[in-house]
Amino acid sequence: MPAPHAASPARGRILAAAEELFYDQGITAVGVDLIAEHSGITKRTLYNQFGSKAQLVAAYLAERDRRWRTLVQETVDRSDDPVAAVTAPFDALRTWTATSPRGCAFINALAELPDPAHPAHRVAEDQKRWLLDLFRGLAAAAGCAGPDALATRLLVLHEGALATRPLPFDTLAETADLARELVSAAEPSAV
Amino acid sequence: MPAPHAASPARGRILAAAEELFYDQGITAVGVDLIAEHSGITKRTLYNQFGSKAQLVAAYLAERDRRWRTLVQETVDRSDDPVAAVTAPFDALRTWTATSPRGCAFINALAELPDPAHPAHRVAEDQKRWLLDLFRGLAAAAGCAGPDALATRLLVLHEGALATRPLPFDTLAETADLARELVSAAEPSAV
DNA sequence: CCCTGGGTATACTGATCGGTGAACCCACCA
DNA sequence: TGGTGGGTTCACCGATCAGTATACCCAGGG
Q1: Residue B141 Cα distances to B37, B113, B183, angstroms
Q2: DSSP string of B69-89?
C-alpha cells in the first residue's frame, strides 16, 4: 500500500495553490475551503493527502524551503571563487525577493503560529539553521577569520534584508555591499 | 461631548489586554470576544471605543510604538557621547527583547495583514521610518561619513536582530558589536 | 430630582472556521 | 471479471468569527 504522502497529481496542485495563497494572504487568513477551490480539488482529497491544515502548512513551508535551497546552492556553485561564494546567498536573495514582496515565509509563519509544537516551527528553524551552517562552512572554506561570528553576522544581515522587504525602503543593495565588506575584511588576503 | 477616543478607564484596559493577546498569540488568531473577556469589559464597549477590530489593531500597534519610542529616546539621551548615541537603539533593543520573545510586533502585523489599506500598515511603516530617520540624524550628529548608507545598514542590522529573536540563536550581542564597529569606522576620529 | 452617558448583560445575526461521513465514479490491474 | 483505491459530490458537524440590538444599571451634574 503506497503511503498517502507519495507524489500524486492532486497533491502537487494543492501545494501550488497553498503556496500562493498562504504566502500572499497569510496562513490564518486562508481557509482550507479556499485552497480546495483554488486548486480544483475537493476538501476531502486535501484531508486524505495531508491529514490536517497544520500538516498542510508544514508541507507548504517544506516545499518552499526546498525550492529556496536549490536556488541558493546553485548560486553558490556558480561563484567564481571561495570568497565570492560566501556572499552568494545575497545574490540569490535578489532573485528570490523579486517574486516575494511579502518578506520571509518562515518568519511570517512563526509570527502567525506562536505554538512551538506546530510542525511549521521545525521547518522554519531548520531553514535558518541550514543557512547559518552554510555561511559558516563557506566562511571556513574561504579561510575567513572567526567563521562562527562572521556567519552569525551574515545571517542577521540576510534576515534584516528579508524582513525590511515589505517596507518601502531599498535595503538589499546596501546589505549585500556590507556583507561583501565583512567577508573581504575577514579573508586571509585582506590588506 | 467628549470624543470617543478620549482616555477612559475601559479603553486602557482593552488596550492592555489587546497588546498582550495580539503580540503573544497573533492578531488573526485572537478574536474580539477573547479580548473583551480578558480585559473584563463588554464587547459593546469595545466597539463603542474602537469601532472595529482593524482600528483596535492599529491602536494596539500605535500604543506599542509609543512605548518603544520612549525607551529608545531615553536610551539615546542617556548616552555618554554622540558616537555612542548612534548605537544606543541596540542597547534599547536588549531591554526591549527581554520581554518580547516573539520578534517585532510590526513586522508580524504586516505578515498577518497583507492588505495595504489596513490601518496597521501605516503605523508599522511610520515606526520603521522613524528609526531610520533617527539613525540618520544620530549618524550625522556624530559626524559619521555617509550617514544615509550607514543608517540603512544599521536599520537592517536592527531588524535582523529582531527577526531572528524567535529563533534559538543568539544574535543580539554579535549584532550590537557589528553596529558599533560600523559607527567607529565611519566617525571622524577613526584611525 | 431627573437626566444624560459610559458601561453592563444577554442574546442574536449570517458567515466562516477546521474537519468528517457516506455514497459513488472510474481507471488500472490481477 | 471483479476488486481496489484515488478521487468526487454533497451534506453535515459544533465552534468561532466580526459585528449588532435591546434593555438595563448607576454615578455625576444641571
Answers
A1: 48, 37, 12
A2: HHHHHHHHHT-SSHHHHHTHH
Mean pLDDT of chain B, nearest integer: 95
The answer for A42, left when phi > 0, alpha when psi is -120 to 50, beta otherwise, is: beta
Domains of chain B: residue spans and CATH = 53-186 (1.10.357.10)
- Give the DSSP letter of residue A146: S
The partner residue sitting opposite B110, judged by closest CB among A128, A166, A169, is: A166
Question: Which of the nucleotides in strand D have any atom less than 7 Å away from a protein CB atom?
Answer: 5-11, 16-23
**Spatial CA neighbour of B59 closest among B100, B99, B7, B97:** B7
Q: What is the pLDDT of residue A9?
A: 84
Residue whose C-alpha is closest to residue A155's, from A115, A187, A182: A182
What is the enclosing helix (H) or strand (E) of B108?
Answer: helix B105-112
**Which nucleotide's C1' atom has the smallest distance to the CA of A40?**
D8
pLDDT bucket at A8, cuts 50 / 70 / 90? confident
Question: pLDDT of A99-151, one tens digit each?
Answer: 999 999 999 999 999 999 999 999 999 999 999 999 999 999 999 999 999 99
Residue of A nearest to B121 (CA): A167
Whether the predicted model's global pTM rises above the 0.70 cut = yes
B36-CA/D28-C1' distance, Å: 26
Query: How far is the C-alpha of A139 from the C-alpha of A60, rounded, in Å?
Result: 31
Cell (9 digits) for A48: 486524505
Torsion over CA: B62, B175, A135, A125 (sign): negative
Q: B125 vs A28: CB contact, 8 Å cut-off?
A: no
Closest residue in A to B177 (Cα) is: A153
pLDDT tens, residue by residue, B18-27? 999 999 999 9
Task: Write the CB contacts of A32 (distance below 8 Å, at least 6 apart in sequence).
Answer: A43, A46, A47, A53, A56
Distance from C-alpha of A18 to C-alpha of A35, rounded to nearest angstrom: 6
Give me the total of CB pairs closer than 8 Å, taking one residue from chain A and one from chain B.
130
Half-sphere exposure of A145 (CA within 13 A, CB side): 8
Residue A190: how many other CB atoms lie within 10 Å: 11
Residue A72 has what pLDDT? Answer: 98
